[in-house]
Amino acid sequence: MTTTIYPARRVITMNPSRPDATHVAVRDGRVLGAGSLAELTGWGPHALDARFADKVLMPGLVEGHSHVMEGALWRYVYTGFHDRTDPDGRRWPGAASIADVVDRLRDAERRLDDPGAPVVGWGLDPIHFAGGRRCNRHDLDAVSTTRPVAVMHASGHILNANTRALERAGWLRAGIDHPAIPLGEDGLPTGELKGPEAMTPVFLDVGLDRAVLAGDEAGLRAFAKLCVRAGVTTATDLASPLPPDAVTMMLAVTGEDAFPLRVVPLLRFLGQTPEQAIERALELRALSTERLRLGRVKIVADGSIQGFSARLRWPGYYNGAPNGLWYTAPEQLRAMYRLALARGVLVHTHTNGDEATELVLDCIEEALAAHPARDHRFTLQHCQLADAAQFRRMAALGMCANLFSNHHWYWGDAHYETTVGPERATRMNACATALAAGVPFSVHSDAPITPLAPLFSAWCAVNRVTSSGRVLGTHERIGVPDALAAITLGAARTLKLDGEIGSIETGKRADFAVLDADPLAAAPEALKDVPVWGVVQGGRVFEAARR
Ligand SMILES: [Zn+2]
After folding, report:
1. Distance, CA 68 to ligand 1 centroid (Å)?
2. Rounded distance from Cα 49 to ligand 1 centre (Å)
3. Distance from the alpha carbon of residue 67 to the mean position of ligand 1, in angstroms
4. Which tens digit of pLDDT belongs to each residue from 159-179?
């Protein structure tokens, strides 16, 4: 039983009873106390460790919506619009046009030895290209006509395939009549595939299979490195099919002494009956360990706004695009919520469009009438277009929200000009309204959709600046303290882990983000630039990888 006391430039505890401290004492991986040195020495013999004396400690950041898959994606070709840093700290430049994307994929193609090997890219974001030009199979045929070529969009909800990949997946035929598979003038698919049903055959063919989606071992380790670099000590995997072999792997890897992260994977509700999904969630919950928290469920109700696959209420998309897709039938939602409430399983539901949010609120209201439950914390993920009335309903129903603030920077201009238009773009991810309505909330990256970095997500909620410099909704901006609460206790609350993590106080896990500057002293516009040194996770110290 060793006690270590760390002096720091400042300890931001997020504990409302004692928000500031100069020292924190750690024993057995937990916080013994935060206060002055004199107060903490009262606990008896201790070692004084001064390595953080000039650092600022805050509670380990909690990424409430990310996908472990990002770790594995870095072995494929990054084709996103914005520059991005990989798990080892290397910066990759963005691709500004379809020609750039094709060039980059061709480079990768030339390096392949196996003549049958596929070429796989990720992060494609055509909404930023001149004229919003979409990629088609002919573009990707310039990479190869003999290999399958598949490129996942930044949203994760759309995939582009070349002619060979469509052929191999069985999609290259006339007469397909499916909203998820748009056709070109020749009556054949354009190569854009929307939603899991259309994408899965291509995914499987090019090796983006269950192992990758569930996070394979190398991917999980790479993902943890990204987390350390971002000050994150708990991250969700939202969501995973969680097959038994992946769970076994995750238990082993997260159980290693040198593994720096607590992972909270949510079981994806897809392809099972509600009964099967809830049974499986309960089985998984029983396997939970300190660094692998199982037993929660994720449902996806609609698609993405910038992919025009989200379900919007009247008047729909600003540019007149047809309404999006339902990913889960309303009867399935109702059955899942009823069963989950009855069995005490926490459910998070992806709703991007406000029609999806409305439907889910209706279904949860009905389910709660049948199975009244206190403190269920059912959470809406993204919930980007919810209006004030919907936030009031969430509050009344005891729900939480996790808002996608990173959208302001990455797609805010597109939302203003193209997808939802000026008024709804200024209310997107309405953090101030959530606060006013009393809905517990967090903000997130949805990595790999945008880079995992809670301080950046907090910066987005505070400043609401788009990449062109437009401020999108001054009235929905929140202050830095509220934004820091969102990325610590806020996210912990959505996971029902706020009794254990999210603040630095006696009895909680010794999880700290170790910062080189003070986020509360920084200018609000500089919050994203606060350098992260690394983390302390369960009392163990991890410095970020750098290049
Ligand atoms: Zn997601």
Report:
1. 10
2. 39
3. 6
4. 999 999 999 999 999 999 998
